[in-house]
Amino acid sequence: MKRNLVTAFAAVAGSQVLILVAQALFSPLLIRVLGPTTYGEFGTLSAGFGLLMILVSSGINGGVRKFIAEEHESDTWKSNVFAYYFRLALIFALIAAVVLVLAAEFGIVGMIFSPKYTPYVYLLALLVFAAQFREYVRRALMGLKLEHIGGMLNVVYKITYYVTAIVLAFLGYGVAGVFVGQILASMIGFVVGFIYVSKSVSLKSLFQSTPSDFPRRELFNFNHNSIVYFFLLKSMYEFDILMLTSFTNSTLTGYYKGAITLAQFLWLLPTALQGLMIQSTSDHWNNDRLQKIEELATRSTRYVLLLMLLLAIGLGALAPVFVPMYLGVQMEPAVTPLLILLPGTVGFAIARPLLTINQASGNMRTVIIATGVAAVINLSLNFLLIPQYGMLGAALSTSIGYGSLPLFQAWGARVLGYYPFKNARMGRISATAILSASVIAIMSLSFGATTFADLGLEWLGILGTIPISILVVPPLGFLLYSLIAIATGAIDLGEIFEILVKIPDPVGSTVRPIKRRFEASKQFGNEQSRASAIKLIVGLAAVIVIVSGAVMAAGFPLLAMTPFGSADEGVLGSIVDQPPSPPSDSSGPSYNGTVGLTPDLTPSDTSTPSPTPSSPTDDAVTVPTPSDDGGSVPPPVDDTTTSASPAGNTTTTPASPINNTTTTAAPPANDTTTTTAAPPANDTTTTTVSPINGTTTPPSTPAPGTTTEDDGLFEFQLSDPTIHVG
């Protein structure tokens, strides 16, 4: 099969789809097995290891992919490039492993984070070698334009890693089991990839010195410049996790790690496209074909933006239902940071193709400046907001940092001589997003968390437990979004056919006759057809809104758990009165587990003294029976006791400010007068008078020493009432 950019993208994207499927299947299992706290510990160690590997491998991997892809007159060029960077990879991995072992031995890890992380560092020292060479051979394969092999190598690694890690974690090995799974999977990936690389380069070059005319300095300079660049880039999605662990606790870190993992799922195709750009544009830069580079950048930016907006709108609309179903109910606090992260995730995805195109120019100074400014913004905001606002501060800081990245990369592109947003159709894409987001949100809210089982269709089994919105909103939302995008001109039908026909068979062969009929027709692409499409879309949107309104009127969201609370409470009541209980962790301040807005201790973290039960001698006062049917004393305080009369009227009598007593006026003659001891200040006690014999029934109170929660936010205890029957 002849290689072109579309077929190469299809190969890489195909492997990325398989990786996404593997992640979608295995990630929630791993999170459920580990639990939020242990998953937070794993996330902290992974973030630190990721930053370390930037220093160890980023320049090497980027260099071998760039320089091995270039065509030179020398037949040994590719072999020499592979051998030169292989030796550098070995030296850097050895240095990193020694540093990790020394940091563990001398207690540096325990001082920076916690002593509980120290044993894992020895495993990370082994993982340095395994991960270094697995990724090195994969990048070499991509530089040799064997993207389909490099992509499948990544699939094998991901599946092996997840299966091994989940099994070992389930057996009780926890974080250590996860890292052992990574080491084993990386070793398998390296062996398989090395076999394929040996078919394209001479392995003898590994044991021979490079020729005297080999440009070692150029390759090495690209290496250390790339290290700075990748470190700045990687810091944008690692520092937030490390800082969140330092300022809060592992539980909140686990929630945030779950949210950012879901958000990064959206980078599937942008990452695949980014992986192709450096070898696809290196020749264009060498031959100064700026117009071709601008065309590639503009089109890739537009396609990525269209796709990312669709995914972000769908995930944002379904997040309150999808996150608890997918990651588990214990991960429900991850919903709020996920929603905050989505706008920035879209921005980072837009920047991904530009990052690689700019890097391929070889002008690393401009790329480093553009990336560094965004990284500094991200780091500064994290430092300012995380101590005050917990995981919400981390989400907001990261989202702003992500969103600034495409702006600075566009500035870098203009410095390099091309305009990436020249024909990106930003206005049309914005209109597409706004129109479709409104309807998709209405659809999602109309169904809430209602399942088929709630409608009495228990015979559907497991399918019946899935929220209806998860099954209905994605296909209808995709159809509506696609039609709006075509109608607004954000993308043309001709462009869609142009992409589809280049995809390998059977897709390409199926689409070609349709494309020919499309090109022969004069009814597509003109203003009349576009106006007709807009009318069709408006009609479809109206139908969806009307049906959604009918669904909401039928009370679908109230049949089961709503996105914000239970059906019995109602949506607003659940938001105000029943927030989830915050997590408790003795290792750090107790943040609000749902939103992470304040580092103040929650009421559950402070002790509430129990009031001393009132003595019958001191607190009980008997009131003579009045001649009328219920008078009132002027209220000196806020505490009141309400008693019902036989006729249904109520009489309010204030509590005494002197001895904490509440005196209830007697009902009509021949009735019994009851006096109750007042509860703690500012609380209200309701006493009901029987319409039959006038006896007064005291309110039900918990047993002595028990604690009652009024709304999940505060705790108090009620003293036992003292009742005197006259």
Automatic annotation (TrEMBL):
InterPro entries registered for this protein in UniProt: Poly_Biosynth_Transport, Polysacc_synth
Compositional bias per record (Low complexity), positions renumbered to this chain: 597-632, 649-688, 695-707
Transmembrane in keyword set: yes
Annotated compartments: Cell membrane
Transmembrane segments: 42-64, 85-113, 149-173, 179-198, 219-239, 259-282, 303-323, 335-355, 367-386, 392-412, 433-453, 459-481, 536-559
Name this protein carries in UniProt: Polysaccharide biosynthesis protein
Principal localisation: membrane
UniProt membrane topology term: Multi-pass membrane protein
Keywords: Cell membrane, Membrane, Transmembrane, Transmembrane helix
Region of interest called Disordered, as start-end residue ranges on this chain: 572-726
GO cellular component: plasma membrane
